[in-house]
């Protein structure tokens, strides 16, 4: 924690997202927000409530249900000099705009020989845990992290929700921000001395010597809860918040795992072909001889996320699984 | 703006010259493709020259262009240097996209040429965003967005029509209806084969234009540009045209007859424009010879420029995947 004299402010992740957007609109006349129900309705997850009154309809621009066109319009506005924020209601709907994101946003800079940059931010909700069933509960950030030309952020704390947007807008590249639907109600104290965060590094949220738990998004609080329990048993788990899924911060990840020599990756995406698979591959390529135990991954079950509470919980990475896996890995010492 | 622009000698010759530049440039491209100097896909614009040339007459330097993978004609008519286009197709670093895009992806920041887009319909949403930005940053600027009639099958086409009219954006949608989406005949693909009627459903001013006549295209484009500059929103031009050559260099053309091609060739805009100018005493034999010579010299110089070009350093492969700054 900073030793700033200003008093910490308590706020929700949702409020942090809203304040970040308000700041962006206030500070840069080239920034506007566009998406479904961002204006009159106030945002599907109430993030943009009140902003239409404050900034008017040309800067809080409600769109029809046309993901491909309004994402493409964001790209067009960006290459023509604006710094737009596009909100896609959930990442499940972003698939309707996947062509624009991959074939235009991620490709134009390279394909044009560097003549055009795409300084666009796309925010979308991700993840499961609110019984919204398969078509509103998937975690697709790992897919997007496959694509060169994009930056992919996953704020897992109120502080990152508050400050990542500003860094993302200052970046000349298309940046995707995945806000976890369960985290919108999370509350935390915000250090007023912190005015910005980087969007290049992973962060150690809890130091520990025995095992590294690499995670992001809503699995971060689960990993921290697991570390709390493990500490009582004498197992010191280090929790690394990946924060940035593309480009991955190899340095922080490798440094942590080199120290602890054990590693669990917790990822709400499906295991096959996931960001957890990518990290595990990098660790096995580069840190093979540093490891004292096999890399373990805790991911969502490979099913469309079901509606009923007990089935949804069974499908998602849970604190108990992190605890048990850590025990088994450290127990082999 | 009168219905038909007055075509004086100079302007008539310019229309003819630009169409001839495209025609002969592409004949050279086909030759160089056979010689394997140009590789990949090569989509030629032969027969459709009147559309790009006609529309570009109505545009100013601060306007924007969004093109398709069949973008040679748009680029030449927009004023991109032929040498940079040929170098691009050779894959040389002097190319208009550093050799990264090839024939389908010409870009030019200085001329606001936002790319040949090779995903059918993929450029339409971009034109919406460019026009949105221009309303803020370059009032009065207009975006000309080109696409084939095949794009009308894509959802993005309809999404973009709606947004353009809903938000009254300064866009001119130019549908190059050459009757075949690759090999798919229009009447097998569309329940409504008059594409301009789809735009009408979005309350957009739209018209069917003779896409084999650059004067008719220019007149329609000027009407559309005037509306857009005046804040009256988008327009839609369905330019009926025809592609004389194969879709790309890998096309046996099983889907259409030689008779049909021959029929459309009677309306070839290049010799027709030449004949019209000659009949009206606006093009002498000496002037014709001079234009042809100039075009040939320009093309020869473009080929020489491309030949002399360099290959981009392999070490630069990952350069521009992520940008360090937004280019000014």
TrEMBL record, chain A:
Q: Which Pfam families match?
A: Transket_pyr (PF02779), Transketolase_C (PF02780)
Pinpoint the Transketolase-like pyrimidine-binding domain residues.
11-186
Which SUPFAM superfamilies does the UniProt record give? Thiamin diphosphate-binding fold (THDP-binding) (SSF52518), TK C-terminal domain-like (SSF52922)
The UniProt GO MF terms for this protein read: oxidoreductase activity
Which residue ranges traverse the bilayer? none
Which of UniProt's keywords are assigned here?
Answer: Oxidoreductase, Pyruvate, Thiamine pyrophosphate
Per its UniProt record, the required cofactor names are: thiamine diphosphate
Annotated NCBIfam families: PRK09212.1
PANTHER family on file: PYRUVATE DEHYDROGENASE E1 COMPONENT BETA SUBUNIT (PTHR43257), PYRUVATE DEHYDROGENASE E1 COMPONENT SUBUNIT BETA (PTHR43257:SF2)
Write down what this protein is called.
Pyruvate dehydrogenase E1 component beta subunit
Which organism does this record belong to?
Mesorhizobium qingshengii
Specify the taxonomic lineage: Bacteria, Pseudomonadati, Pseudomonadota, Alphaproteobacteria, Hyphomicrobiales
Automatic annotation (TrEMBL), chain B:
Q: Name one GO molecular function term.
A: pyruvate dehydrogenase (acetyl-transferring) activity
Quickly give the catalysed reaction.
N(6)-[(R)-lipoyl]-L-lysyl-[protein] + pyruvate + H(+) = N(6)-[(R)-S(8)-acetyldihydrolipoyl]-L-lysyl-[protein] + CO2
Q: What class of enzyme is it?
A: oxidoreductase
- The UniProt record lists the Dehydrogenase E1 component domain at 18-310
Q: What is its EC number?
A: 1.2.4.1
Task: Print the keywords alphabetically.
Answer: Oxidoreductase, Pyruvate, Thiamine pyrophosphate
Cofactor entry: thiamine diphosphate
Share an example GO biological-process annotation for this protein: pyruvate decarboxylation to acetyl-CoA
Q: Which InterPro entries match?
A: DH_E1, PDH_E1_Alpha_Subunit, Pyrv_DH_E1_asu_subgrp-y, THDP-binding
So what does this one do? The pyruvate dehydrogenase complex catalyzes the overall conversion of pyruvate to acetyl-CoA and CO(2). It contains multiple copies of three enzymatic components: pyruvate dehydrogenase (E1), dihydrolipoamide acetyltransferase (E2) and lipoamide dehydrogenase (E3).
Q: How does it assemble?
A: Heterodimer of an alpha and a beta chain.
Q: Which NCBIfam families match?
A: PDH_E1_alph_y (TIGR03182)
Entry protein name: Pyruvate dehydrogenase E1 component subunit alpha
Instruction: Give the gene that encodes this protein.
Output: pdhA
